[in-house]
Design goal:
110 residues; mainly alpha
């Protein structure tokens, strides 16, 4: 009976050791899987961040180009309006001189 008890004790210790080994292997596999998942998430996050930064940078460049185009157009329109206003003022001045001259001539004739 003593031998049987010892055999049962050894069998229980062997079973417990095997269970502990399997539990440790499973825990290590989970740890490796978690590390790999973390690495993949980190890599994808970095890739997404880089893509977003590139997109935002491209949009900023386009916005700057559009603003420069709008500013240049505004300057061109402003210059054109200034030139036309100067031309109109000159035409009005000449018309006034002509009218004054004609009025002076008629006054002398009367």
């Amino acid at each position: 009976a003593e031998e049987a008890a010892l055999a049962i004790g050894r069998a229980a210790e062997t079973a417990t050791g095997a269970l502990d080994a399997r539990t440790a292997e499973t825990a290590a596999a989970f740890a490796r899987a978690a590390e790999e998942a973390g690495r993949l998430v980190g890599a994808r996050t970095e890739a997404a961040d880089a893509a977003l930064r590139t997109s935002v940078g491209g949009l900023a460049e386009r916005a700057e180009a559009a603003a420069a185009t709008i500013a240049a157009s505004g300057e061109t329109v402003g210059a054109a309006l200034g030139a036309r206003s100067a031309e109109a003022a000159e035409i009005l001045r000449r018309s006034a001189e002509t009218a004054t001259g004609a009025l002076g001539t008629r006054t002398v004739e009367v």
